[in-house]
Amino acid sequence: MSDTPPPVSDQPVLKLLNVESAYGPIKAIRGVSLQVRRGEIATVLGSNGAGKTTILKTISGIIDPRKGSIEFKGNDITTRDPAFIVQQGLSHVPEGREVFPLLSVRDNLVMGAYTRNDRDGVAQDMEAVFSYFPILRERATQDAGLLSGGQQQMLAISRAIMAAPDLILLDEPSLGLSPKLTKEIFEIVVRINRERGTTILLVEQNANMALNAADYGYVLENGRIVMEDTCAKLREKDDIKEFYLGMKEEGVRGERRWKKKKNWR
Ligand SMILES: Nc1ncnc2c1ncn2[C@@H]1O[C@H](COP(=O)(O)OP(=O)(O)OP(=O)(O)O)[C@@H](O)[C@H]1O
Ligand SMILES: [Mg+2]
User: Fold this and answer.
1) pLDDT tens, 93-112?
2) What's the CA gap between 186 and 181, in Å, rounded?
């Protein structure tokens, strides 16, 4: 494996067009259009309640959109169910990890590979995740529920890798983690993209980490995409610097900032 970035193709692996999702009367995302190209890390930035998690749940089939369409690898998956979508090669690491607490770390990883029959490939990928996160090898026989929050995040990401997906959806991996652990996890996410060529769509409040890790970014305010560009360019924009990276009170469309309570681990 080499450190050269995988070639980013112009072909979108994922394409959302005018997607609208709601919870009863509450419209959570409105007219969201975005693309993720094969080989890249794309990010959606937004503060609490912007609709980041809703976008990922809509893509992975947990909720059906009211309007719009979603294409994955050229096929329409708009109203497909989650099991079908996973089988097509799309893995979702949900907000708050959700590992199986009463299964061992190893069995959680085996569960991640349930759609595969290539035993050798599964064994190789198990080795690969143990090399990314050596603590998981040490804790392989322990119940996953006994892991710390950061270790559970590592396990949740690893379980997604075990499915050998073309695309991983990653919901706020930094949530509740110390800055040091957040940095470590982001470094591994970038390695997974570079070394395995896995395309990643990452949603984050931590704009600083996300803009450094990703290639292309979208800014979501109040359920709408209000800005998009390469992350290199977004990092230079005054609105982004002031609101998402600094101390300004209002975002591009007047969204106010408020911080989620962090649980330090
Ligand atoms: N199950 C639900 N029922 C009703 N409203 C919901 C539900 N889940 C989310 N919402 C609402 O939809 C909007 C978008 O929520 P979402 O969870 O997608 O935001 P988010 O960007 O992921 O926020 P956070 O950074 O806090 O995780 C919010 O206004 C939220 O209150
Ligand atoms: Mg969320």
Assistant:
1) 999 878 999 999 999 999 99
2) 9
